[in-house]
Amino acid sequence: MTQLTATGKAQAAPAARRGPGRSRRALVLNLVAVVAGLLVWTALAGFGVQGLPNPLEVAGRAVELISDGTLVTDALASLRRVLIGFLLGTLLAIPVGFLMGWYATARGLLEPYVQFFRTIPPLAIIPLAIVLMGIDERPKIFVIFLAAFLSSVVSTFQGVVGVDRTLINAARVLGASDRTIFLRVVVPASTPFILVGMRVGLGAAWGTLVAAELIAAQEGLGFRMQQAQLYYDLSTIFVGLITIGVLGLLMDRLLLLAERRLTDWQERR
Description:
Layout: H1 20-46, H2 55-67, H3 70-102, H4 104-118, H5 126-133, H6 137-161, H7 165-173, H8 178-212, H9 221-230, H10 234-262
């Protein structure tokens, strides 16, 4: 069974990768997009759109918050909450997704609950979380965990049920056990779906962060933005938004790198 995996063609030539020319072109386009966005932002601020601060004002405010340690403290607090909630949600979502996809009984028992809670926004769970868990870190992390879990579990489930039946049947014909089929066929074939689900779950975790920090937080990017809202401090709000975006983008790039390494057998455009 060493040659029969979800990659299909174990002895085939490696999948096509992006050449250096494509990578440079993508980087140039990214830089152009960033510069264009800054120019549009500067133009809107220059026209006085609803008191919108210009990039220089936001950069100055960011320097102030970094100098007094506020931004670093808030960023670390938010990052800790997101990482804990995201990792817990993902670690639970992967085995649950595999169970639902591989065993019909588990699917019948678990899928109604997963689909039910998917229709409920995690933010709507906040009042219940406060009543049941208090106002410490637990309800904040729980809401983030729920957002990450629900995004990842469905993607993992789809990856398992979408495995090509030809591969499974061929493995059975060659005498592979269910355990071998699961480990050598199902898991590799599901890996791209799992990693996409993790990227979606990471976005959901960061998207839930600001609301989660409504729960009696004393530090965090969401907390700082809510405090700035009270004083109409738009520069601080923009610093918080940009920090969340940058941290989320960096984490997403790390997941994308892991996806490319773990699914190197896939052809890419």
